[in-house]
Design brief:
Number of helices: 5
Number of strands: 7
Distance between the termini: 18 Å
Largest sheet: 7 strands, antiparallel
Helix content: 10-25%
Strand content: 25-35%
Order of helices and strands: HHEEHHEEEEEH
Structural class: alpha+beta
Radius of gyration: 17 Å
Shape: globular
Mean pLDDT: 89
Length: 196
C-alpha cells in the first residue's frame, strides 16, 4: 500500500524517520534498513553519501518531497588518487550517481518494493569541481512525481553543492524499481513517458 492509502486507513506508514546516519545508510546497502526486495544504496566506495540530513514527502521545489544529504570530503578518498594523477578531482559522474542513489533511497523510505535502477536524466550541468581541499558536498533532491503502477518510478531534479556553492545540477532524474532487478524491453520508453 502506498503511504497516502495507509494514512487514509488510519495506519501509521513505515519509515517516518526524517534523517539517517552513516551507519543506517550502510545498513541500507546491506538490505537491512528497509527489508528484503527494497532499493539499496551501493556498498563500499560507490556509496557517495555519508548522511541524510532531511527527507520528507513535503517541501522541495515542486512541493512533492525532498531529500538533503551530505558527503564529507577527505583527500584520501579513492577517486582522487586515480582521477587524475597529479590533478585530483572528483569525477562528475559520481556526483550524478549520488543523486540517483538518493532518489532511489526516497522510494525505499516511501515504502515501495523492488530493486532500483537508474533510468536516465534529461539534463546535467557542471559549473565547478570537487577538489581534495573541499570539506563537504551537499545534495538537494526535489521530488517531482512518484508513479506506482506496473512500473514504480520516481522523477526529480537534483543539485550538488561544494562547501556551499552549487556546482552540479541535474534535471529529470529517473529511477525505477523492478521485481528482480532486471529491466525488460520497453522499460526505457515507459520511463521516458511515465506511462506504464
Amino acid at each position: 500500500m502506498q503511504r497516502q492509502t495507509l494514512e487514509r486507513h488510519g495506519i501509521a506508514p513505515p519509515f517516518r524517520q526524517s534523517s539517517f546516519t552513516r551507519e543506517e545508510l550502510l545498513a541500507c546497502g546491506e538490505g537491512d534498513l528497509f527489508g528484503p526486495n527494497t532499493p539499496r544504496l551501493p556498498v563500499g566506495p560507490m556509496r557517495m553519501v555519508d548522511r541524510i540530513t532531511h527527507i520528507s514527502q513535503e517541501g522541495g521545489a515542486f512541493g512533492q518531497g525532498e531529500v538533503r544529504a551530505e558527503l564529507d570530503i577527505d583527500p584520501s578518498l579513492w577517486f582522487f588518487e586515480c582521477h587524475f594523477r597529479g590533478d585530483p578531482v572528483m569525477p562528475g559522474c559520481l556526483g550524478l550517481d549520488a543523486m540517483w542513489q538518493l532518489i532511489g533511497f526516497y522510494l525505499a523510505w516511501d515504502g515501495h518494493r523492488g530493486l532500483g535502477r537508474a533510468l536516465g536524466v534529461d539534463q546535467v550541468r557542471f559549473v565547478g569541481q570537487v577538489l581534495p581541499t573541499a570539506r563537504r558536498v551537499t545534495y538537494q533532491i526535489d521530488i517531482k512525481r512518484v508513479i506506482a503502477r506496473q512500473l514504480v518510478m520516481i522523477t526529480g531534479d537534483g543539485s550538488l553543492s561544494c562547501d556551499g556553492e552549487k556546482i552540479y545540477t541535474a534535471q529529470g532524474l529517473r529511477v525505477g524499481l523492478f521485481k528482480d532487478g532486471v529491466m525488460r524491453a520497453g522499460t526505457s520508453d515507459a520511463a521516458r513517458t511515465g506511462l506504464s
